[in-house]
Amino acid sequence: MLDTTHFPKATKFWHMGKIHPWSDLTLHPMVHALHYGTSVFEGIRAYSTPAGPRIFRLPEHVDRFFVSAEVVKMAVPYNKEEVTAAIKQTVRENGLESCYIRPLFYYGYGNLGLIPKASPVELVIAVWEWNAYMGEAAVNGIRVYLSPWRRTHHSQVDMRAKLGGAYVQCTINGLDARAQGADEALFLNLEGRIAEGPGENLFVVKNGTIKTNDMSESILEGITRTSVLEIARDSGIKTTVAPLANEDLVGADEAFFTGTAVEVIPITRLIDGSDRNAPRREVPIGMGKPGPVTLRLRQSYLDIVHGMNPRYEKWLTPVD
User: Is 35 helix (H, G, I), strand (E, B) or coil?
Assistant: First the structure.
């Protein structure tokens, strides 16, 4: 049996039309994606609600999943309706009320040249219980490390896609951030402005207005990001989408990350390591504690995903 310490309550996964026990090993070591990162994925969450488990913004995630596959020239063996049904089936088979969902298209076993001309595209879907991504920091706030490494530029790769191989940059910088005593990393783009975290979009709050940037700043325009912008506008909070300079973050009243994994998480301190030739400096964001706008949006988001706000019922897909 495989150790499931880091995949709580995972008992089964879906692979190419069949449900397998979690401990089944189905991948050959010469799978193309293992060597070159030729895979695309989604991070999706299902939440417990009074009406049963609901998947947050499933159609939007499946749409982006197929956009990502198109970027890597994948001839995928399933349509959107089939992938949607398989995701729901995997959640049901594991009997989970709340879980993280990971669908993955990848080039499989066939050849090992850079061009996967003989490697078929396969699909695997896994789910497991996953609570707050950063534990108590989700409420108390996190420290971020502004990295000296720049984010992959939007002129180099289609930033709409979640490409498996592209995330090695995120892994490296996430590990570096933790070595610096931070909870997460933050990238600048090639223009020297703030881009995003390894798996999160950044918002700053100034004088009650929230501000974030867009794909022209070399970010993935996250589904949670889009949702929070809509929630804020519906709540009467002014929003701005424009480039973010380092000064916008350092001078902010509040700051927070958004993403499927982190949901809405306050940022309370910044470790600036962006200049390799200058000593690192650590500064508080605002008052150095989660601010009222961040906490309001966080609670609104959690109410919505848990089915407590009927206005946003459209965002919740039943598992049944």
Answer: helix
